[in-house]
Amino acid sequence: QQIELGKADLRGAHRLFRGVAGSGKSIMLALSVSQTLLAFKEETPTLFDGRNSARRVLVVCFNKTLVHYLRNKIEDRYGRVAWEPPSDEHLCVTHFEGLIRDLETKQTALATGLTWEQKEQRAKALCSAIDRLDQKTRDSLLFDAVYVDEAQDLLPAEIEFLRRLARQEPGGDQTLILFYDNAQNIYGVTQPTLADLGINI
Q1: How far apart are CA 73 and CA 69, in angstroms?
Q2: Which of 90, 135, 155, 157 has the fewest Cβ atoms within 10 angstroms?
Q3: Distance between CA 28 and CA 181 in Å, rounded?
């Protein structure tokens, strides 16, 4: 079932996968990300689709130590099919704090002056800040698919901010895929009601 889901086209929806440590969530994530990258690569842009830039996939986790592992797994899987690693233009694998720093560097309007110690306040400020950006600027920061590993360690407001980074297609579809392990919630983050965050699983 994991292999089937990993190879399926999961684009265009909000999805949640739960599993305990060792159940294969990260492997499934790597399979799915590779499938999404390949699907985007095989798409033929049309003259009228209004897209001037490459499709981009974001993979974000909570712990910095997981970034290298996820990147290697994705590159290995993608390389077996595409015979080349995914480019940095198409794939961004990072931890949450690294993502915030990168966005603040790219767009100073998102620089809140707050740190991880004020993370709930910071996440809410980021949501407001990205909503205030003009459409062209905001569009330059968005990703066509967002994958979140270790979602149980992120505050509800942080998950809501990540949803805002997932581009909405003309029909309203959005690709946001969460991987969640209640048993590894070592920081005691209260599980959110995802519908309250605009996430419809």
Answers
A1: 6
A2: 135
A3: 14
CA–CA separation, 41 and 51 (whole Å): 14
Q: Which two tokens stand for residue 194?
A: 């995802």
DSSP of 96-152: HHHHHHHHHHH-GGG--S--GGGHHHHHHHHHHHHHHS-HHHHHHH-BSEEEESSGG
> Residue 139 phi/psi, 5° resolution?
-60, -35
What's the pLDDT tens digit per position in 15-74? 999 877 777 788 889 999 999 999 998 875 654 455 556 899 999 999 999 999 999 999
**How many Å apart are CA 116 and CA 176, to the nearest integer?**
23
Cα torsion through 117, 123, 128, 130, rounded to 10:
110
Strand partners, 14: 176
**Residue length, the chain?**
201
Q: How far apart are CA 110 and CA 78, in angstroms?
A: 32
d(CA 19, CA 155): 19
pLDDT of residue 48: 47
Token digits for 7? 């190879």
Residue 28 vs residue 191, higher pLDDT = 28
- The 8-class DSSP code of residue 175 comes to -
